Amino acid sequence: MEIWILIILTVVLVAVLLLRMKKPNYLKTLDQEEFKKNYRKAQLIDVREEKEFKTGHILGARNIPLSQLRQRQTEIRPDKPIYLYCQNGSRTVQAARILRKKRGAEDINHLKGGFRKWTGKIKK
Known about the structure:
Elements: H1 2-21, E1 27-30, H2 32-38, E2 43-46, H3 50-54, E3 57-58, E4 62-63, H4 69-72, E5 82-85, H5 90-103, E6 108-111, E7 122-123
Parallel strand pairs: 1-6, 2-4, 2-5, 5-6
Antiparallel strand pairs: 3-7
């Protein structure tokens, strides 16, 4: 009996984690070339932590860590395109959900593969 409860809890936990990481339909995934075309005309937000940001970031990016996004969401205009990136792309999904729910943002994009795959200009 106890083993079944443990199995059920494990399955529920895995399902919740998978749903949380699933990319929402309103979040557009852009490859590096698509991202480079328009990121200078948009709000470029790096959602990595400050320590990660300081080791290098895309030129022109603002650092608003995911851990601070709820408190700092008013710094992002919902009526302008938003370009998000993190180290590998997983945190941007959570950031997009926050910006859509709390700010009503419509045009949200993220970099496929994140900063780890970026080959464009960076600032250290």
